[in-house]
Specification:
heterodimer; A: 2 domains; four-stranded mixed sheet; two-stranded antiparallel sheet; B: alpha/beta; Rossmann fold; Alpha-Beta Plaits; 14 strands
Chain lengths: 439, 308
């Protein structure tokens, strides 16, 4: 008798009808948005605070360098005051810091003698921006001193944009590189999160069956393997439902919020990188950039991406969830699961790190390649690699390996499951679990 | 076929530990079969094998003439000792689910559940959550779910634990009625008085071995000690006592009597017959009380386990 659909249905309905599940599903997006707003608010709060930097300028360059007044960092040029007095004053007035530009004849000497005094270590971005400002000015002066015409130099500057194309004639670009990376990262992390959240859910629901002692009643009717698979499938479906609702809610809410408050969600999390990107975007024509972006998305091997995403996502989740199921069956309560979580978390985290660093560096390097075949890391790593173009045979071999291993882990997990669900009252050791495999 | 279940030479090992060592049992059709044994003797291991929860390492189980197979789960109803229900599910939903796992269709299950819920007067629990029920209430649901698919073989492991005497009697009557309707019952318990009341066959498992089995009556005959409880209104009590002590093995006895009797338990040895004892006693006065001491299931249990 095949009870798999019946068990799956019960698991699914039981999860979905659960009050805390419903609350989680509908409240989490609200919390996430509230958090986003809060973070945005806090960052802006920090930003709007004026920072005053006093400048003791003996060289006479400062006026030209710090003429920009739009920034929240204000520069106050102190006149007729010596450095020692200025330091005392600035400290008393609790200004952010004191910049000292001495009078040195040689520009190259001057470049090495600029000093900055502050109460605490100043922020890195501030120092970098000061350095670049002074550098630019001094370079200009240096050009002049050496007899170059600055206008001509500016005129002569060339900006290079290499046209990239693969051997097969696919056009690539930095933008598409970023897009590919983005796709890979998003799908990799998504899988990672999914495994952790819903793997745990499967584990808990098996522990619940053990502690409520229903398990023996059930497995006198169905095979343990069927029960385990039913739980995995039912919970996965519930997970997918929740994920889809989250995505829908989040997008609807952000649209509503941004139209109501006129807040752009993406602007809420301003980071230095994003600022730079926005800076870069300003230079070009927005309209044109957008069409290029759409074009790039269109140019990605979308069919391949989607099919492989589904295969690796399903395969990877099933692989790990069968291990979670085995752990759930082996222990009596959640606190005992800790010692068994290690073997699951290590490959998962490894996969995310390899994906995050190695693939980013070189998507087709040896390390990335090897890890995209090992079934425990392949779902994450391969998903990150695929947008950069992985030969079809590699993808197919990796998927086959993944699903073969899945069958292996299900067999392994069901062995542990079969014995574990009937063991009450004590925390098993690895050695005992190894013995169960032979029962 | 007279036997519903035949287990031959069942061996089950967990690693180095042998849970069942060459156990053979025969459960006749229509019997109430008591499976007895101390804690950890291997009873649950045996029941799990019958339910195909675990497989024996060697040995053969035959059910209704055919080797036991997956399809037989619908002919077996099992109420395990470690039993529970999904706490957050409603009673009705849950009963339906468990019934469907045993192969009933949803409509069939609903009909029969209605019948049983009405019969046990628990109809208004349908929409309650299990966590709102008391232990005894949950036990009733479990009982209903066990018998709902009208299995040929019913296996109850400590079915009365958690029940008050009224409900225990109710369940006992239901079990007897199910047997009348043609079911065979395997009944595992430590409560010897219910063995006495219900079982016609028993088997005793101790330390992974079967040490005793057969019809309860036959076993009782086998265990009888030729001891008689006597009550005599003797003219000379002391003389009677001395004479009895010298001729037989005696021990004090107490039972209700309206006479002022000499009360004793007297064991006669193999060569004497009860009649001889009776006429011997009659010499000393009027014999008001003369009954054979029949070993109880409890006596048999203790004696066998201690001797093993």
């Amino acid at each position: 008798m095949n009870h798999l659909p019946l068990i799956t249905k019960r698991e699914y309905l039981n999860k979905v009808k659960n009050k805390s599940f419903i609350i989680m599903t509908f409240v989490s997006p609200l919390i996430m948005i509230a958090l986003g707003l809060l973070i945005g608010f806090l960052t802006n709060l920090n930003k709007n605070k004026e920072r005053i930097i006093d400048v003791v300028d003996e060289s006479g360059f400062a006026k030209e360098i710090f003429s920009d007044t739009t920034s929240t960092t204000k520069y106050r040029i102190l006149n007729n005051i010596d450095l020692v007095q200025a330091r005392v004053d600035v400290e008393e007035q609790e200004h952010y810091g004191l910049l000292y530009i001495p009078k040195v004849d040689s520009v190259s000497q001057l470049a090495k003698s600029v000093k900055f005094y502050s109460k605490d270590t100043p922020s890195l971005t501030l120092i970098a921006s000061l350095e670049s400002k002074i550098e630019k000015r001094l370079t200009d002066i240096n050009y002049k001193n050496k007899g170059f015409d600055i206008e001509k130099i500016k005129d002569a500057r060339i900006s290079v944009d290499i046209y990239q194309e693969s051997y097969t004639g696919e056009k690539t670009s930095k933008l598409s590189g970023g897009l590919k990376l983005g796709f890979g990262m998003v799908s990799g992390y998504l899988l990672f999160m999914f495994i952790i959240i819903y793997g745990n859910m499967i584990m808990r629901s098996i522990i619940e069956e053990k502690t409520s002692r229903i398990i023996e009643v059930i497995i006198s009717s169905v095979k343990p393997m069927q029960l385990m698979l039913g739980k995995i499938f039912g919970t996965s479906l519930a997970g997918i439902t929740q994920f889809v609702i989250w995505v829908l809610l989040l997008s609807v809410l952000s649209i509503v919020l941004s139209s109501v408050f006129g807040v752009n969600m993406s602007e809420m999390q301003n980071s230095p990188q994003q600022e730079m990107m926005q800076e870069a975007m300003k230079n070009g024509d927005m309209q044109q950039k957008l069409s290029v972006l759409l074009n790039e998305i269109y140019n990605l091997p979308l069919a391949n991406l989607i099919v492989m995403f589904l295969l690796f996502f399903i395969g990877g989740f099933l692989l790990y969830s069968s291990l979670y199921a085995a752990i759930g069956a082996a222990v009596d309560n959640e606190t005992d699961t800790q010692q068994f979580m290690m073997p699951i978390m290590v490959p998962l985290i490894l996969a995310v790190y390899v994906g995050g660093f190695t693939v980013l560096e070189d998507p087709h390097g040896t390390v990335a390649q090897v890890f995209s075949f090992i079934p425990f890391t392949s779902p994450v790593v391969m998903l990150m690699r695929i947008p950069f173009g992985v030969p079809m045979w590699q993808q197919i071999v990796s998927v086959l390996l993944l699903f073969t291993t899945f069958i292996g882990t299900v067999w392994f997990a069901s062995k542990i499951y079969r014995v574990g669900i009937l063991m009450y009252g004590k925390k098993p050791t690895y050695k005992e679990i190894y013995k169960w495999l032979k029962y | 076929m007279d036997n519903l279940l035949v287990a031959e030479n069942i061996v089950k090992k967990y690693g180095d530990y042998t849970a069942l060592n060459n156990v053979s049992l025969t459960v006749p059709k229509g019997s109430i079969f008591g499976l007895l044994g101390p804690n950890g003797a291997g009873k649950t291991s045996f029941l799990r094998i019958i339910n195909q929860i675990t497989m024996p390492d060697s040995g053969l189980v035959t059910f209704d003439g055919k080797p036991l197979e997956q399809n037989h789960v619908k002919d077996i109803g099992y109420l395990p000792e470690e039993r529970g229900l999904y706490k957050s599910m409603k009673v009705g939903e849950q009963a339906l689910y468990l019934a469907q796992l045993k192969g009933l269709t949803k409509t069939e299950a609903k009909e029969r559940l209605k019948y049983w819920f009405d019969r046990l007067e628990i109809g208004d629990w349908w929409n309650k959550k299990v966590q709102e029920l008391s232990k005894g209430m949950a036990q009733k649901i479990q009982f209903v779910v066990t018998v709902l698919h009208e299995p040929k073989l019913l296996i109850f492991d400590e079915p009365f634990s958690g029940f008050d005497p009224i409900n225990a009697n109710l369940i006992k009557d239901e079990i007897l009625k199910l047997r009348e309707d043609g079911a065979t019952v395997i009944f595992s318990t430590h409560r010897m008085e219910s063995v006495e009341e219900l079982c016609d066959h028993i088997a005793l498992i101790d330390k992974s071995n079967k040490i005793l089995d057969g019809k309860l009556l036959d076993i009782k005959k086998q265990f009888k000690s030729n001891t008689y409880e006597i009550g005599v209104s003797a003219t000379n009590e002391n003389e009677l006592r001395t004479m009895l002590d010298s001729k037989f093995t005696t021990s004090p006895a107490s039972f209700k009597s309206i006479h002022d009797d000499v009360k004793m338990k007297v064991q006669i040895n193999g060569t004497n017959s009860p009649n001889e004892l009776f006429s011997f006693l009659a010499n000393y006065g009027q014999v008001n009380h003369f009954t054979e001491v029949i070993p109880t299931a409890s006596d048999i249990f203790i004696q066998s386990v201690q001797n093993n």
